[in-house]
Amino acid sequence: MTKGGNVGLAALSEDTGSVILSLNWSSAAGDGDADVSVLLLNGDGKVRGDADFYFYNNPAAADGSVQLLGKTPTAEGNEDRISLDLTATPEDVERIVVAASRYGGARFGDLSDLRVTLADRVGETLLGFSIEDADVESAFIFGELYRRGEEWKFRAVGQGYESGLAGLATDFGIDIDDDAADEETADEVAADEVANAAPEPVEQAPAPGAEGVPSIPAPTSAPTARVAGEEPAPAPARRPRTAKKKVTLPKVAKKSLAENESWRVARLFPVSSLRYDREREMRATSVLLSVMAQVPELGRRLTAAFGAPAGRMETFTEVSLPHGGNAPKRPDGVIRVERAGKLWTALVETKTNGNPLKSEQVQDYMDIAARRGYEAVITLSNDVALEGSPLVDVKVDGRRKHKVALWHLSWAEVAHHAQMLIRHEGVGNTAHAWLLQELLQYLQHENSGCHGFQNMGPAWVPVRNGIDNETLCQGDQRAIDVVESWDRLVRQVCLRLGGELGQKVLPVQRARRGTDQSSRRAAMADRLCEEGRLYAELRIEGTSGILAIVADLRTGKLRTSIEIPAPDQGYPLSWAKRLVRQLAEAPADLHVETLVEGQGGGPRGTLERLRPEPADMLPKGGARITGFRLSLFKGMGSARGNAESGFIRSVDDAVDRFHSGVVAHLGSRSARRP
Questions:
Q1: What is the 3-state secondary structure (H, E, C) of 595-628?
Q2: CB-CB contact of 459 with 482 (8 Å)
Q3: Whole-model pTM?
Q4: SS3 letters for 159-205?
Q5: Between the CA of residue 241 and those of 52, 170, 264, 597, what are the distances in Å?
Q6: Where would you tag: which of 308, 404, 406, 418 has the fewest CB atoms within 10 A of its CB?
Q7: Using the 8-state DSSP alphabet, how is residue 218 labeled?
Q8: More confident residue, 325 or 429
Q9: Phi, psi of 70 (to 5 degrees)
Q10: What is the DSSP string of 298-309?
Q11: Which of 206-210, 333-337, 637-641 has the weakest average pLDDT?
Q12: C-beta of residue 654 within 8 angstroms of C-beta of residue 560
């Protein structure tokens, strides 16, 4: 689409009752990011109340009409997805504005490939719109959905705001909270820009077209407090109000009444008697589906990404379905959602304990779903899905008018969403929080078989041996298999760490524009054959740098590190002393390396040696310091599995130790060099 253009959704697909909007961007450095937001507007072009503003701290509507699904990494950057159930949108909502904002003084001109796409219920992309003129704006309206009679249309907007999220929100009638004493997060910095500047859009949207498309409202001035007879006082720092506090479980567990540690707490979902894979699959499916039906927050959160509408959900297990002239098939579960008299149905196929999905089994369920008019098949296993590397191969009959979507969900994602709800975002009541806690306890139990990705695959040992004896050649398929397993492990580390912290944690993938995932993994495999190392980078919201992981298969060492940019002001000696104070509780074996302009590495040493003499970190000759690199080293597990001696466990432990011992003490983002 071109800027200002509009199109009716009904003309593009028959499945637009629920749609998925995806906002994409990338940056050459791999560290660019933005946060999406959605505003529901009435006929006057204003929100009906603060609750109509959905962002990082208010991610979902109670009626299911809006749900922010979060970020996923792509080959060139990030994709942030939004689920909109248009059938659940209140009748007095005329427009749905989709926007994004940056924080900490960052501008959209620093990002590239700004794009929004819209997909229908089965995930088929219907339209796209690229923004190519971003410059100094810190907030952008990508597009909007609006009603025309009984039909919804999409309009490509592409309007920027130099005044940031606060300017955009104020224009649409969001109340500003005057309580500046609340704790700020890094993402809220943009909202505070309303303090001393009126919001000024960098460019106006096109005038209304022949169809009477509503235009973006003219910017208004920021509200100020005024006393009669006095000059206007400067506005205090303000931010959009956050959502009403929901129920979350306390971080510190209550004191136990047990006489000793051998007493086991009674659990709603016991797992001690599970012995066989079939038992684990049946129990895990029943536990998850029952909690999804009873806790709407979790049910909606998991199914919104699959194009399901918001509505009454019921779940079933061990359903027998006819399959032509063959014996009936029994999918592990069925999910049904009713909305306005219409049913959305998904068949569920579950695997636990690392067992792989079977293509022929999934193919049968796809065929059954197509014949019976069901909407989706959902596979659930320990594997983490990767872009460009499907877990199962199925054939879709293009002659059938009814389309069936195939989606995958990993047990690690289920645990992540449950932890985000009960620890950070909150749920409607204490009963829901308790049910989610019982679900999480079940998933984390060693007998459940729902531990997520836990095996590097059969190629792991041959590749390690090939690196040791220098017989592994570039182009070897086994090296590509190991790289795919490494990618799955990194994705799972991000899910686990993000759930514990309540923050966005994403893998950084540096690749040339236009590079697909298969080519990127092939290049990583060639690098593995040449250097014997696996590389990964994680971006953790609120940290001052990117956490890097290097697994050296030759030396059997794991290195976790982070680079901190030097401050803009002050003296090098004061920087060194401040860094040592920040790391007062960090491990003594932490390696500290000074980064020097034009030279890369400078003075280095362990924290234990540098604590009494921070001046030893300064380079000789007065060379300019650009930053510091902090690193920890750990022995690498050799086994391919998730046992104590396994590679996967050693990576988890290394990331946990580095984050808790180092990154957590560095505080929020420090000032970046220009």
A1: EECCCEEEEEEEHHHHCCCHHHHCCHHHCCEEEE
A2: yes
A3: 0.80
A4: EEECCHHHHHHHHCCCCEECCCCCCCCHHHHHHHHHHCCCCCECCCC
A5: 11, 12, 43, 43
A6: 406
A7: P
A8: 429
A9: 95, -175
A10: HHHHHHHTTTPP
A11: 206-210
A12: yes
